[in-house]
Amino acid sequence: MRSEEWKKVEELLDAALELEPPERRGFLDEVGASSLELRREVESLLAGEPQVDGFLAGMALALSADFFADGEDSEERAGQTVGRYRIIREIGRGGMGAVFLAERSDGEFQQEVALKVVRRSFADSDLARRFRQERQILASLNHPNIAWLLDGGVSAEGEPFLAMEYVAGVRIDDYCDGRSLATEERLSLFVAVCEGVSYAHQNLIIHRDIKPSNILVTNEGVPKLLDFGIAKLINPDTGKGDAETVTGLRAMTPDYASPEQVRGVGVTTASDVYSLGALLYQLLTGHRPHRLKNRRTDEIARVICEEEPERPSTAVSHVEEVTGADDGKLATLSPETISERRGRTPEQLRRTLRGDLDNIVLMAMRKEPQRRYASVAQLSDDLRRYLEGRPVLAHKDTFSYRAAKFVRRHKAGAAAVVLVAFALVGGIVATVWQARRATAQARIAAEQRDRARIEAAKAERINAFLQSIFASADPNWYSSGFGQRGEVRVVDVLEQAGRRIDVELKDEPEIRAELHHTIGTTFQSLGEFDQAQPHFDAALNAYRALYGERHPKVAEALYYLASSKMGTGDASSGLALYRQSLDLFHAVDPNNANVPYLLADLSGYLSGTGETVAAEQAVREGLEMARKKYGDEHMLTLTLLSRLGTVYEMRGDLRQAETLYQTVLATSSRMPNSKLLSPGWLEHLGRISFYKGEYKHAEAQFREALNGARQTHNENHPQHINLLLTLAEILCLQGAYAEAEKDAIAALDLLHRGAPRDSSYQLKGLSLLSLIHAKTNRPARAAIFLREALTLFNNLPDEARYQDDGLLGEALVVMHREAEAKPLLLKRYEFYTRRFGDKNPQVIITRQQLEHLGAQARDH
What we know:
Layout: H1 3-17, H2 21-34, H3 36-47, H4 56-64, E1 81-82, E2 85-93, E3 97-104, E4 112-118, H5 127-139, E5 149-154, E6 160-165, E7 169-171, H6 172-178, H7 183-202, E8 215-218, E9 223-225, H8 230-234, H9 245-249, H10 259-263, H11 269-285, H12 297-306, H13 312-315, E10 320-323, E11 330-333, H14 335-340, H15 346-353, H16 356-364, H17 376-387, H18 399-409, H19 411-423, H20 428-472, H21 490-504, H22 509-525, H23 529-547, H24 552-567, H25 571-588, H26 594-608, H27 612-630, H28 635-651, H29 654-668, H30 674-677, H31 679-691, H32 695-712, H33 718-733, H34 737-752, H35 759-775, H36 779-794, H37 798-801, H38 807-814, H39 818-836, H40 841-859
Antiparallel strand pairs: 1-2, 2-3, 3-4, 4-6, 5-6, 7-8, 8-9, 10-11
Helix pairs in contact: 1-3, 2-3, 7-11, 7-17, 11-16, 16-17, 20-21, 21-22, 22-23, 23-24, 24-25, 25-26, 26-27, 26-28, 27-28, 28-29, 29-31, 31-32, 32-33, 33-34, 33-35, 34-35, 35-36, 35-38, 38-39, 39-40
C-alpha cells in the first residue's frame, strides 16, 4: 500500500476510534462503498483494539465506569461512613475517584469536609503506608491559597480517602467568565494561585495536576488550590521511565500536562510552571493551548511535545466548538464571546495580549524545562512587572522596548518632555539636558537589566539544584544508604540536599545561603529544630560574608536562628538573638515584613520570663505594623492581640485578658479556616475560666480546643498533649477521676511513643496520675508515679520545674508528705512572685495551697 493510502487509513482509523462501537458499522459501510480495500485495513486495525493498551479514551472510560467495585450509584453512598466521616452527597468525580461532601460521624464536633475517596483499583498493597507517611507533610501546607488537608487513611472497606477543607467556591475559569473579569483582574487572581504553588515548592511538594477544576475561588475572591500532592500519594512512581508513560497519564490531565509528564520522565517544579502557563493561556484566551484531534496517546504526545501553541493574541481570533466542563454540552467560542467575557472588544483584547502577555505565557510553556521560568515565583514576578508597567523578563531586552515601557508608565512626564523639546529645539540647554537625562535613564536601565539577569541566573541555578534533589527522591533510584528501597522520607531528602549544598555550590555563596535558609525553614516546619539550626547558622555566616553585619538578610537570618534555638529549648540564646535581630532591623530596614512576626515571637517569650513591660512594648509595636499592613482580620494581627492578652494574664488582670481573647476568637470566626485558627485562642479562654474556678466552663472550652487541635495537628504535637493534660487536670478537680486518668495516661503514652519529650509535660502527667491514684485510695500506685515525678523534678531547671500547676505539691499533701510539700510550694511561690508579682494566677494558686497546708497543720 502506498504512503498516501496509509495516510488515508490513518485518518479513517482516527475517525472510527472517535465513534462508539455501535456507530462504527454504519461508518465502515460508508468507507466500503468507496473502497473495500480501505474498509478491510481499517477493520483489521480496529479488531486489534481490545488488545491495545495505548488508547487514552478507552482508559478514561475504564476509569470513569465502575468506580466502585460493586457498581453502586453515587446517590446510594449518601449516609455511608468512610473512616470517621459520613457522606452527604457527591460533589465531583474524576478518573482516580469521587469527591463527596461529608461530615464528621464520631460526634466529637461538627465539621464539613470534602472527602476524596480513591478508586479501589489504585489501592495497591503499599497505599495505606504511603498515606500515613505523606499525609502529615501535606497537612503542613498552611497557606491561604491552598485548601488544607485535614485527614487521610484507608477505610474499613479498603478505600483510600483524604479529608480536605471544604471550599464553597467555583472553578477559576467559571469565576472569571461569570463575572466578566478584565485581563488585569484575571492576572491578579492568577498571581495569588502562583503564590500558593510557590509556597508548596518551597516545602518540596509538587502539585502535578494544576487545572481549572483543581482551583476554586470563594465568594470573597480568594483562589484555593485543591489536591496538592495527591497524585504523588496515589501514584508516587508516576513519570519514572518511558515504560510507565500510560500509567503516568492517569495522574494528570493532558490539556495541562507538561511534555516531560507525557513522555514519562521526571516531574519537577518546572512541570508545575508549564501547567500554570497552560492555565493562564485558557484564562486569558478562553481556549486551551493544544489542538488535540483525538485522545490517543500518540496524538497527545505529538501535540504536547512537538507542536508550539499559538500566541494567545492569535488564538482569541479563532472560532472553536468546546464541551462544557459541567454539563457536557457543546458551545461555540468566538472572538466576540471571548472578548465580551473580558470587558473588551475583539481588537482591544488582541492588543492587550499582544507582546508581553504572549511572551510570558509562551515562556512558561516552553517544551524544554530549563528554558521556562526558573520558578513559579519568577513567573509571578514577571506578571507583577507587567501589571505595574515595568519591563518583563520574557521580552527581549531592547532599548526601544524599555523606552516604550517608560513612556507608558509616565505618560504625563513624557508629554512634558516633548513640549520642552519642541520649545527649545535647537537650543544648547535642551541638548545638554536631554543628553544627561538619556545617560541617566540608560544607566538605570542597564542596572535593572543586570540585576534582572543576575536574579534570573540565580533562580535558574536554585531551580536546577532543587530539581536534582527532587530527582534523587525517586524511589526507583533511591540509595540504600537512606533506607529500604522505595521508602523516601522528606527528612532524608533534606539531609541529602544539605550535604550537597556546600560541595556543589561552594563558589556561589548567595545561592548557597538561600538554599540553606530554605532547607532550615522546611526542617523547622516539620518540628526538626535540631536539624534546622545548622542550616540557619550556615545561612547567617554566608550572608555576613556577602553583605557585612548591617544588612536585612543578616537580620532575617538572625531571626530564624533565634526561632530554632527556642525550638531546641535554648531560651537564653534564642532571646539574645531575637533582640539582636530586632535591633538590626530597626537600624537597616524598620519596615521589613519579618519585623511584626519577630515582635510577636519575642513578646511571647518575654511574657514567659516575666518581662511584661518589654513584652507589652514589643506587642504594641508589632500590632501597629500589622494593622497598618494587613488590617484587623489577619492571622498576624490576631496573634499579636492574643500576645497582649497573655501580658495581662501574667500580671493577673484576668478581666482584660479575657476581653482580648474573646475579641480575637470572635474576629477569627469571620475569617476563612476559622475552625483551624481557633484552638489556641480557645485554650487561652479556657485557662482564664480555670483560674476563675469555673471548671465546667473551662472543661467545655478545652474540649472544643482539643477537637480543633486534632484537625490541625498530628496527635503527637505538643499543643495536643498539653490540652489533653490540662483537660485531665480540670476533670480531676471536678472529681471525674476515671476520665481524668484516661486522658493523663493517653498524654503520657504519646510522650513515650515518640512525641517531643517535653519534660515539663511529663512532670505534669506523672504528678497528675499520682494525685488521681491518691484521691482514689490507691496509695501503692500513687507512690510509683510520685517517685518518678520527684526524680524528674529534681533534674529540671527552674524554667521547666514549675510548669505543672502545682500538681506535684498537691500530690505530696494528699499523700500526707507535708514535710516535702511545704519547701517545694514555698520555692514555687517565691519563683512566680519574683518573676511576675503577687497578682499572677500561679502565685495565687500556690498561696492557696500553702494556706490549705497551714490550716491542715493547725487542725492536727
